[in-house]
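Sat 14:20. Reprocessing the chain from the morning session after the first attempt stalled halfway. Input below, unchanged.
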Amino acid sequence: MRTLRRLRELARRLRGTLGRRRLEKEMDEELRFHLERLAERNLRAGMSPAEARRRARLTFGNLEGTRERGRDEQRSRHLEMLAQDVRYALRLLRRSPVFTAAAVLTLALGIGPSTAVFSVVDGVLLRPLPYPESERLVAIEALGYKGELLHIQEHARTLRTEAVGWPESFDLTGQGDPERVEGVRVTAGAFHLLGVAAALGRTFAAGEDRAGAEPVVLLAHDFWVRRFGRDRAVLERTLTVDGMERRVLGVLPPGLHHPFAAPEVVLPVAMNPADAIEIWSQTAGTLVARLHHESSVQSATRELASFLPAMRASFPWDMPPDHGSGLTLTPLQEFMVGDARPGLLLLGAAVAMVLLIACVNVASLLLARGAARREEAALRASLGATPARVLRQHLTEALVLAGLGAVAGVALARGLLALLLVWLPAEVRVGAIGIDARVLGVTALASVAAAVAIGVLPALKARAFALRAAVGAGGRGATGSGRGRAGGLLVATELAAATVLLLSAGLVLKGFAGLLATDPGFRTEGVVAATVSPPLYRYPSDAALRALHADLIEAVAALPAAEAVALTDRAPFSGRPGGSVFVIEGRPHPASSGGGWPWADLRGGVSPAYFDLLEIPLVAGRTFSAADGAGTERVAVVSRQLAANYWPDGDALGARFTFPGDTAVTEVVGIVEDVRWEDLTGPTPGALYLSMAQWVSRGPVDLLVATDAAPAALRAPLRAAIHRVDDATTLAGVAPLGSWVGASIREPRFTALLLGAFAAVALLLGAVGVYGVMAQAVGQRRREFGVRMALGASHAGVTGMVLREAGALAVAGVGMGTLAGLAAGRLLAGHLHGVAATDPMVFAAVAGSLGAVALTAAWLPARRAARVEPVLALRGE
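Finished this time. Tokens:
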């Protein structure tokens, strides 16, 4: 009740403040009514009209005091004073358009990037996932085989587990042009686990992921709109997906964010619990669990760890004794964001630094402007304004400036956010990202903090001067040295912050430049890559697929722009990693000996022209030829690293091995140089290449074409050539092979580009800050310079003096920033690819650049000081 009464009282006072004219009119009418009643009473007592009115006024008392008490009752005096201060601040800013524009633009450069980056950080890191009770969703790491999933589903009591992440591409045929669509495979209970219902139709039911179930499919909302024009009758259709007719069960809700993909279609995982080879050799995808209410991450982890011995024993072959030892349960959002968290936090720190620099810059402008308003402060003090009133007025001006800067900053943030979403790696977008009420609220708080930061020092200076003026101590030069020290401190702080940001950006950019210069080990220039997906239902046998692959190579090679053509089941940086264990002939079998299994990054099939087209050097032996056909002994080519790993004595050539479950023997006939497959930063893995004619890939294959033509110009001829062979085969991802490599460093590129941009803004603001403070100092010391010139000081001497002062500020600021940068470098370790956190070249370049910028910014004020006419300066002109 007390709170309700207070709210009502506040509302009444606000109405009184906002309806001031109406309040005054009502009070005047009420006072007039009471005076007239008293005068009438006096008239009836026999007084003259004039005497009756005089006595009525005497009886009533002080009219103005009564009015003031009524005003205080009906409105908030503080709110009215705030409104007066805001109106006065706006009038002052209108009279100084250049100052206002400079301050608002500077604040917008700080607030705009901060708002844009915060909206990304908020959408990726801070907002809960768009699933009910998402805090209880966890990802299970180190497990993922179908058999492991089934074992957990059957025995777990602390959690419920489903497979919700198996991204895959599918061929959609039979309804217009064949199309390669992005999809995902999930278990039947995945959407129920996530708490997601279909917008149209239904999701998967129990058992629809088991062998023998009816083939079904779900459509993403955007795909349904694009392909079927919102046709609700789609539920009555069947779609041909990878050659299989599947009934459409439903359409997923719009805006649904799948944890690990942006699918167009969703298929159930196919699991046959009766087939031990299948369920214990095939992955089910990423396992996601929902903890029961009474369970914790720790209890669920202990329970799953207790299952490991039984699960290892269930594999058809001996598993390493440490299989599953890395078992962890990670909050789903953290798992989805992955390595993007440090980069986003780094960008958040960078924009906070830019905002700090912008605030220091505007504080310097307000401090300089306050020097010109000393007479105003003295006049206000002489008219009765208290120092607190002067302080409040200046803080209000800072708040108005920050508000205008925030409005401009939000407008700037909208454009910046569009760029951020283009650069932001798609895999870290776990929710909606935009400038909404939540982001605007944080921006408003940041604006208030900025107002305090830019206004407190100038306001305290104005208050101190008003206090001296009130006691008669407001002389001309009373605060000159104080202002100079304050301005110098602000510039040093600004330069220190700019130094930290430039050092961070320099280190990250140098590391990124090293990434760009990293040799992947194969040719990327003049090579166009694409993914070709034949409809497998048309090619039930390996012989049919071999013939198709040969026909595709022949058809593409006939194009005038094609210089050479190769096929492979997985091209470098295709995003389809794969590996396999193998057994080396003549050595103890790992299944019986308990030793470690040899493992290789498996390139399951490459055509003979592959190595020459990509210019992968041959170290020893030979590569594949047309003679390595289906009826000949299987052959393989290994990388230098794989040969060193398993044949360190140099006897890799001629070595023979088999794969588990396959009796065919493969002989190593060649060794080639190592290449990087998916990562430019880590070590090169050992790779094992097999002949495509002997090892047929039943799935998409990557087409590599050596050409001088642009990918856009080659797309149509490629599609036509492929469709002449098979009109149901799809072509996707036509792009330079270098762009496939570049896609692997999207996150480092995103971080480096933004840090570089923010560092450039910081450098610009730092130059403006030095110029503003030095120009202010020169203006205040014109008389001093005039005296020096009159006493014989040279132009060069005065110029050098001003530049020395600027240099001292630069040394102080850069020195403090360098010390802070040494500490910041340790926090950047995860973003520095091959660069030391104390790289002397970067530190020297940043120090030299900032010093040069500071001296350049001070040059114009220094020249102005050297051109002071002694006579005019001494006269005060």
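The longest strand covers residues 179-186.
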